[in-house]
Each structure stands twice: as C-alpha cells, then as structure tokens.
C-alpha cells in the first residue's frame, strides 16, 4: 500500500521536474508526432509497392506498429526512465550516486524500476493506441471479446518481457559499468516494428528465443486478428513469467556483488 | 589557419578513440540496425519478383552500401557542438589558437576510422550470407567517390549550421531531431527514392537530404542514368554551397551574440 | 549501562582491482587472463562510539575513510570483522536500520535538480515513512535553524553552493536519524557560511543527541566540531582520542619561537644538538625540540642568546597531520 503511494509521489516529482522546462513539453510533442509519422509512412511506403508480405497486409502491419508504439510508450512512461537513471550513460551506478538509492529503506528493485516517470509519454501512449484502434477498424475480421482478452493478455506478457529484458540489462551494469546495454537493446528492439514473419527464419528464431522482442509485438498483433492460438498465448505468458523471475534474480545478485566488490 | 595544430589534434583524437573501440563499436552496431531492418523487409517483399525495378539481390546490395555510406556521412558534430554551446564549454575551444572547426573535424575523422573498423567486416559477412547483386561500372565507381565526399560535406555543414542555432535557442536539438526524421524518410533509408510515392519522391529530389546519403548509394548501385547523375551532382553542389554559406554566417552572428551575452 | 551506539571490531575490507599494463599486447593478454591487485582499504580497525558523540574521521586521500563510512552505512560488505550500529548489523541493510541512519556525500547531491528543495524533501519524507505532521515539524525546525526561508521556492540548480549544502543537510535529517554520516561535506566556501553551518551541526547534535561521524579534509571543521578524532592511514587506525592529544602523542615536540634583539641578533652561535632550526630570519628564530628537552633547551637559549621574546608552542595540528601523511606513520 505504501509502495503505491510512493509511486504517486515519484510520478508527481517527475512531472514537476519535466514541467520545469517549458520547452520540454513542445519538444516531447514534436518527437512523438515525428515518431508516429515516420513509423506510419514507413509502413505505407512498403505496402504502396506490394499488397502482402508473408501473409501480412497494410492493416495488420499497422496494427503491429500501433502495438509497438504502445509498448514503447509504456516503456518511456516509467520503466525506461527509472532503469536508465540507474544504468544508463550518466546513470547512478556510473556516477556513484547509487549509494543514495541503496541507503533508502525501500526495496531497491522497486526504486530502480519505478522511480522516474516521464509523463509526456502518455501522449505517445494515446497515439499508439489510436493507431491500434484505427487499424482494428480497418481489419476484415471483426474484433470479438475473445480477441480483445487475448490481446490484453498478450500485451501484458509483452510488457512484462520488455521489463524483464530491461531489468536484466540494467542488472548487468553491476558487472560492467559503462557498457551501453540499453543502447544495444534499443537497436534490437527496433526490429519489433515489423512482424517477425517478415524476417528470415534464423532471425525469427533469434527474436523469439534469444532476445524475445518478437514476442513483445507480434503476438499481441496476431491476437487482434485472431491468429494467436491459445498455445501461443500461454507460451508468451509463460515466457514472461520465467523472464521476470530470472531478471529479478539477476538484478538482486548484481546488487549483492556491487556491495561486496566495490570500494 | 593552424594546420599543424589541427593535424596533431586529429591524430591525438583518433588515437584516444581507438582506445575506446568497444564503446564505439557498440554505437556503430546500433546505427547499423535500422537500414538492416529495411534490408530484410524489402528483400523478403521482393523475393521471387521485382519491386520498382529492383530484385531481391539488388535491394540487398542497395542497403549494404547504404549502411556504409550512412556511417561515413554521419555527422556527430551536430550533436556535440550544440552541447558545447549549451553547457558553456565553447569557451575552452575559443581560447585555443585553433579554429573550433578542427575540433569537430578531428572527432569526425576519428569516428569514421573506428566505426569503419566495425562496419566493414560486418557488411562483408552479411554480403556472404545475403547474396547482394551489385553491378559496378567504371563510370559509377568513379562518380561514387566525389558523390560520397560531397555527401559527407553536405551532411556535416548542414548539421553544423543547425547545431549553431544553439547560440540562440536553448533546445536547437529539437531541430536536429526533425532533420533526422527527414533524413530517414527522404534520404533513401525507408526505401530507395524511386519507390517513394510521387509527392514524397519529388520532395526528396528537391531537398538536401537525399544528397547526404541516398544519392551516392544510387550512383554506385547503378540506379541513375547520365541525366540523373548530372542533375544529382548539380543539386548536391548547390545545397552544399547553401550549407557552407549558412554555417559561416550563423557562426559569425552567433559568436557575436555569444560573447555579448557572456558565454 | 547502555551499549555503545557504534561498535566496530577488527573490521577489514580488501577488494580486488584489475590491473592492466598499457599497450596493445597487454590488452590482448588481458582478454585471456585477468590479473588483480589486492587493495586493503580497511585493516583490522576497532573502536566504539557512544550515542550522541561527534567523531571526526581523518586521514589522507585513499586512507580508507570513505570505505569505513560505507561499511558502517551498509553499502559495502566487509571482508572480515564485525560491526554494530544502533544495534543492527549494517550490511544486512534491514529497512529498519536504513531508517535510523543518514548519509551526506560531499560531492554528490540527493536533491532533485530542477525543482524547489521542498519537493525533494516531500518525496524523501515519503520514502522514509515520516508521518506528515512530524515531517512538517522537523522541516520547520530545520529551516529555522538554518535560516532557509527564501530558498524553498527556487529550483535547486539556481542555488549557490552554500545554499545547496544547507538543503543537503536538511534532506539528511528529515527522518530524524539516530546516526549521521557526513563524508567530506563542503561546509561552505565563505567564512560566514562555514561558521553558520558548523554552529548548526553542533547545535543539532546537542539538541537531538544524534551520533555524528564526520570525515573531512578541512582541519578547521574537524577542530571546531569533533572533540574526538580517529586517524586512519593506509586502512589502519593510528589514533583514537582528542585532537589535541594527537599532537602530543604523535609529534612529541615543541616549537620555540624567539625574537632576538641587538646587533648580535643574527649570530646565534652553536646551538645544542637536540634542537632543529625551523626558521631563521632577521631577528627571528624558530626552533624545534623534543617535548622533554624543551625546558632545558629554553633555559639554555635564554642564557646564551639575546632573546627579546620567547614563546613555547605546540606544533600546529596541520603540520602534525601533514607530517604523518608524508611519513606514513606514528
């Protein structure tokens, strides 16, 4: 209960920090719109030349783009900023500011994951969801309640997988501060803009089993069109749970190592 | 012009960047991924057919060359110069008996060397896996060199004058973000220019962005006839002159304002 | 008889630092086989501190002071030995323990940069679970003690260094810690700020009985605030006691400052062998003699030299410390 209240305070403090610079707001808006425009135009240029690729047409791919934008927005909203503040380029572990975080009588993983919010990402969230809605209305199949539930389950699993990967990468910073893990992940995550069905077979396997970014966006998009079987949904949920447990363990292990190994 | 000092600075920067190769390799990896994604998407779309006159192998070749050209013309100076001005570190450079352009040039050169160390082997490996089709003619190869050189200069000075707007606007980096989006759409990343829908294609041919990245790639992959080649060069040189003029005048005016305001 | 607030027994911390020779061949070798050096940051240190004491932890750079502090805060695990602070084992990092302590890091800030200090204080009070009413009282008390009224509405980045220091001090005390660790706090660059902040620390300690461990390079701060100092050098505790006693024990000599008169003022003849000339200027002479020799030497000098004025002094504490740092030992 207290932790929920803390989240409220963190969000409020972050909003105040962001609002301190007026320019931030407009620039954030600009970035969001640019992001949307380039994404949508990219997909439209592709499907301007060809009807379907490997079973994916314009609306289905747009739906997937919408999922990508939505998940990205959720990441930018709180997971990303908090973990970035810990493990990123100027992160606390790098500058030594992490000691303060360790001194707080609050669970460190909680702080590391939820401490910094980027409220302007709510706009991106709205944009992303709009794209999904627009795409869904254009789909040939109608959206049933079952599809919707499947979509929400898949989306939840996707966000959990994303969090777990980010957490694991952030945890790696305890072993090797200064390496840009999140930058590497960001690059690979770009691949989730397109259905993994468009990639060659070997890459598809990598994007499911090695760095499961493919599962994050493709499964929810498939759920919207009813193409996601129960097996696939269960698989992604299971994967999400396993990754979450593993990543948390890695993070905590890294914390202990930080305390014993550093000076 | 202090050439000796400038050359010494370039050598020293290059040596120190080589020390941190790992860091820069990771950056290069990140920059390589977006063109790679489009390579995969287009080559999948074009398997077994041609799109816009290009077959699968030609798409692969186009994008592999694009990866290298994009890296070679990329100007990180735009970002660092803006930061220098914003954080008041320009003073350090202005005090030296060396034009600040050398500082920019030395990071550019150092960067190119280090990034190419990474990119070239990777592109070579990808070529082995993905089977590009590249039809080189003497004319195209000869034209490629000046096209590439002019492209780098254009991208450098265009980014430079925008970054110098940091003398006035605290957040000139927003403009750079817009520029990056425009380069993405109109410089041949999303798709080779000829595949863009009419409105966008005309914009791409007129605006400077294509001449920063796409044009040299089109030259060497044989997508241009003689007329296209010469008009392309004309546009390229024309935009370069404009960029140089803008850089020089914005620098002069901005410097006056910078010293007047107190640095 | 209550237990001491801080008990440290044979605490030691060694950590391994990877070593690397310069050059390309060495970096290739390094990829295959890592070599390490063992650095003994803290060696076999033992001491106790009673509740409410203000103790200064002094020593040269790299002596192990910050490591010692981090061990007591629970940020580091020791290699061996034990410690108890306020009844807890620090490195178990129980939340109940973390709520009783506070740390101020000299060169790092725990304030949020772009917003007024009050907002940071509020978040911190929530993190530490301070009830709102108590937060209000503590905050008002601290603001009054530090005279911070107008600072509260300005973003932290617009405050001066001294003002930011005040904010750090308040931030550290909002949850009324029982133990307060201050690592190299820059207590202000101008004299008036220094005096004010020192007075605040002393006053707060007196009023609230918080145990304070302070490390500092500024001898003036340590001298003004800490009746007791612990000297650490190369990870070992060299001295634990009053600052004045440090000079006495570690530098058992006296300085004899003399003003000489007359034309013979410049020729001092042959001096006893057990004195050392520190300074010899026109009509001025400063000698150093062992404490035990001082009375005899003084008497001898008064007889043999045209002394107009004589003062027998303890060496300045900075000189003592400096000598210890340089010579590395007692």
Explain what you see:
The complex is a heterotrimer of chains A (263), B (263) and C (330). By secondary structure, chain A is an all-alpha fold. Chain A has one domain. Chain A contains twelve helices and no strands. Chain A has helices at residues 2-19, 22-49, 58-87, 92-95, 98-103, 108-114, 121-138, 145-172, 181-189, 201-210, 213-224, 230-261. In chain A, α3 runs parallel beside α8 and α8 runs parallel beside α12. The longest helix of chain A has 32 residues, at 230-261. The radius of gyration of chain A is 19 Å and the shape is globular. Chain A starts with a helix and ends with a helix. Chain B is mainly alpha-helical and 263 residues long. Chain B has one domain. Chain B has eleven helices and no strands. Chain B has helices at residues 3-19, 21-45, 56-73, 77-86, 90-95, 100-130, 138-164, 173-186, 198-206, 214-220, 226-261. In chain B, α1 (3-19) crosses α6 (100-130) and α7 runs parallel beside α11 (226-261). The model of chain B has no long low-confidence stretch (mean pLDDT 83). By secondary structure, chain C is an alpha/beta fold. Helices cover 35% and strands 29% of the residues of chain C. Chain C contains eleven helices and 13 strands. The longest helix of chain C is centred in the middle third of the chain and has 18 residues, at 191-208. The mean pLDDT of chain C is 83. Chains in contact: A-B, A-C. Chain A binds chain B through residues 23-24, 26-27, 30-31, 34, 37-38, 41-42, 44-46, 48-50, 53-54, 178-180, 183-184, 186-188, 190-191, 193-194, 198-200, 203, and chain B through 22-23, 26-27, 29-30, 32-34, 37, 40-42, 44-45, 51-52, 170-171, 174, 177-178, 181, 184-185, 190-191, 195-197, 200.
In short:
The complex is a heterotrimer of chains A (263), B (263) and C (330). With 263 residues, chain A is mainly α.
Summarize the helices and strands and which ones pair or pack:
The complex is a heterotrimer of chains A (263), B (263) and C (330).
Chain A: H1 2-19, H2 22-49, H3 58-87, H4 92-95, H5 98-103, H6 108-114, H7 121-138, H8 145-172, H9 181-189, H10 201-210, H11 213-224, H12 230-261
Chain B: H1 3-19, H2 21-45, H3 56-73, H4 77-86, H5 90-95, H6 100-130, H7 138-164, H8 173-186, H9 198-206, H10 214-220, H11 226-261
Helix pairs in contact in B: 1-6, 2-3, 2-6, 3-6, 3-10, 4-7, 7-10, 7-11
Chain C: E1 6-19, H1 24-32, E2 35-49, E3 54-58, H2 65-73, E4 80-85, H3 95-98, E5 101-105, H4 117-127, H5 132-146, H6 161-173, E6 179-183, H7 191-208, E7 211-215, H8 219-225, E8 228-233, E9 236-242, H9 243-250, E10 253-260, E11 275-281, E12 284-290, H10 294-304, E13 307-313, H11 317-327
Parallel strand pairs in C: 3-7, 3-8, 5-6, 6-7
Antiparallel strand pairs in C: 1-2, 1-4, 8-9, 10-12, 10-13, 11-12
Helix pairs in contact in C: 9-11
